Amino acid sequence: MDKLKMHSLDGVERNIELIGKLFPNAITEVMRDGKVEHAIDFDVLRQELSDSIVEGREERYQFTWPDKKKAMLAANAPITATLRPVAADSVGKDGIPGGFDSENLYIEGDNLEVLKLLQETYLGKVKMIYIDPPYNTGNDFVYEDDFAQSAADYMDNSGQYDEEGNRLVTNTESNGRFHTDWLNMVYPRLKLAKDLLTDDGAIFISIDDNECANLLKICAEVFGESNFIADISWQRTYSTRNDSQGIVHEVEHIVAYSKQTGWNPAKLPRTEEMDSKYKSPDGDSVPWTSDNPFAPGAATHQGMVYAIQHPFTGEMIYPSDRACWRYQQDEMLKIMQGWCPYELKNLNDEEKRANVCGISANQVRPDVMGIVLALPFEKSKKLARKVYDKGPWPRFYFTKGSLGGIRRKTYLDSVGGKLPTNFWSYSEVGHTDEAKKEVKSLFGGTAPFDTPKPTRLLERILTIATEKDSYVLDFFSGSATTAHAVMKKNMEDDGNRKYILVQLPEKSNSPQYATLCEIGKERIRRAGRKIKEEAGLTAPADLDIGFRCLRLDESNMKPVYYTPDEIGQQDLFSLVDNVKEDRTPEDLLFQVMLDLGVLLSSSIEVKEIAGKKVFNVADGFLLACFDHDVTEETVKAIAQMKPYYAVFRDSSMANDSVATNFEQIFETYSPDTVRKVL
Predict the structure, then answer these.
(1) Residue 227 pLDDT > 80
(2) Domain total of the chain
(3) Cβ neighbours, 10 Å, residue 583
(4) 142 touches 210 (CB < 8 A)
(5) Which of 245, 266, 584, 644 to pair with 164, CA 20 to 30 A apart?
(6) Do 208 and 253 meet the contact criterion of CB atoms below 8 Å apart?
């Protein structure tokens, strides 16, 4: 059996491996702490990336600040923390407190450490990330990640807060590190967040003017300049403040970046005002609006540059300069024959077509014919008049009572939704007062959180950036607006989006709730009940209004698990079991799920086999037993279920005989099962 590593992904180790695949000659070995490790030969790597001899450091465009390298190390350094389930604070899918079957996650803890723990399990699985980090106004708190500590001290202090329960410090403008502290806080978190996005995923970040410019530079570095989507202006207020001085700030920014180039938003629902522009003056069964009959690109689409004879005036109509017809000639011929008989004819009009294309006559295609009337003009005109008077008209029609220019019909059922712009008005997505009223309505007229976002704002982002079964992440969750919006959106379109919310249990200003986590969890409970009650019988039976509550904590394992070389013989008798005494089997299960990359929202069924507690995760994908004195009967039953993973405690086996026969049992009944111990 292999031993589980029981710590988060080592970002440096992974990056070295990736660079080694591209530049094998840049990989070297160094001695660190008495061990030989792989490392990067940066002189070789720099030379590989240069087309001239590299002798020294070159000047280059860059965005930097004090401690940036330490912030990068903070993102890459592994930790030994874990997430422990809190069933008492959880809510079942159906909204019943204490249930643990929801696919949504609410995680309490420092989001830097939580993001590290999610790296393997949710790598490339999150479709949309929304965060509303501290704005750095001079009064906001920023996370105090102490880069001056050694890596070991940093890990030891993870999850430690000041005497008031805060891991935060006020970042005043008089602080000489005003911008630096904020940049060091947000940079490693964004680096980790990027890896969680799907290839077609995107991140949306609320921010004000103070750090917007810096945030754009950080995102350009982390996500790439070519992956910039938009700097969206959200009209957060509907009335000018009387106490404002200078230029009134009506908008906040939402900076959006994609994981890869070429991201496109889903379209928004059409409005009544948009649809009102579509009519049917000719009696067509589908409403339409008048549109341009031409498309750009005449010189490169010469086969679509030709004359069409007007059936009511007889004149030859050509596309406008540098333009061509919208459709291929055979399609245009069929459309025009809806008026009267047409045919193709060589008009010897190379000079005219050359003028349209903006080229010389000797460069134009010689074989492009015109679409002309097949019958005498007066007879064609009479037939076309009948079509015009009776209707409906063909796709290309004529204005001014049939005597004007040519236009194209664009049908309502072909245009789809509305493309989002980079200005979002309060009338469309809500404002700050609306957000406060939403929270007040849930909490009996009081607002325990000062700066919530309106759910309509988050619903807009969910509409353009997610699909019905997407994972959504918010690691500055605050009052849990994102969870509220996800539930509303799922109710609206019968979706099954799953959210992952992360929030540090920082002290709240509310006398009723000690921390922001307590506010967020209670909001989800109340919002879920309200959504389901208002929907009544129309609510989908499988609508998930619950969440699994998890809490960041130190590892379940004693130090001997990670540093066995440091344990003396005199300590061995006190360390027979490498699991901390206060940890439950459920605690161990979730650390194993994190270690093996099993979704934390997976189904969990508890069985008793030969008197031992066995966890069946994800319908047999993982079977785990953390009881002591496990007999061959239990081992055999688990092997016969043929799981992908089977996990036991290192001290699980009842005796040496069971331990000896363990591997043989699995080789007999399930040789492909991956066996692990902790």
Answers:
(1) yes
(2) 4
(3) 19
(4) no
(5) 584
(6) yes
Domain that holds residue 656: 570-677
Kindly state whether residues 489 and 549 are assigned to the same domain. yes
Q: Are residues 103 and 219 in the same domain?
A: yes
**Which pLDDT belongs to residue 19?**
87
Residue 452 has pLDDT above 90, yes or no: yes
Which residue, 507, 525, 553, sits at the end of a domain? 553
Query: Is 90 exceeded by the pLDDT of residue 146?
Result: no
Task: Give the residues across from 258 on adjacent strands.
Answer: 202
Gyration radius from the chain CA atoms: 33
Q: Which residues, including other chains, have CB under 8 Å from residue 386's CB and lie 6 or more apart? A: none
Q: What are phi and psi for residue 211, nearest 5 degrees?
A: -120, 10
Using one digit for the tens of pLDDT, what is the confidence trace for 245-257?
788 889 999 999 9
Tokens describing residue 459: 């619903």
pTM of full prediction above 0.70: yes
* 116 and 246 belong to one structural domain: yes
Contact 667, 638 (CB under 8 A): no
User: Which whole number is the average pLDDT over 541-566?
Assistant: 83
- Angle (nearest 5°) at CA 521 between 517 and 526: 145
Q: What is the spatial distance between Cα 542 and Cα 494, in angstroms, rounded to a whole number? A: 9
pLDDT digits (tens, 9 = 90+) for 257-316: 999 999 999 999 988 889 999 999 999 999 999 999 999 999 999 999 999 999 999 999
**Which two three-digit tokens encode residue 234?**
């959200």
Residue 476 sits in the same domain as residue 453:
yes
Residue 623, SS3 per DSSP: strand
Q: How far apart are CA 250 and CA 237, in angstroms?
A: 6
| pLDDT number for residue 59 | 59
Burial group, residue 636, by CB count within 10 angstroms (0-12, 13-18, 19+): middle
Residues 389 and 424 in one domain: no
> Looking at the DSSP assignment, which residues form a beta bridge with residue 595?
none
Q: Does 587 share its domain with 631?
A: yes
Backbone angles phi, psi at 491, to 5 degrees: -65, -40
Name the E strands within 15-163: 27-32, 35-40, 82-85, 105-108, 126-131, 141-143
| Residue (of 420, 422, 435, 421) closest to 237 by Cα position | 435
Residue 72 has pLDDT above 90, yes or no: no
**Amino acid, res. 111:** N
Residue 188 pLDDT > 80: yes
Question: Which of 116, 105, 181, 185 has its CA nearest to residue 503?
Answer: 105
pLDDT at 483 over 60: yes
Q: Is residue 618 part of a domain?
A: yes
Taking CA atoms, 571 is separated from 421, 574, 575, in Å, by 65, 6, 7
Please name the residues in contact with 187: beta carbons below 8 A apart, sequence gap of 6 or more: 68, 71, 72, 75, 218, 222
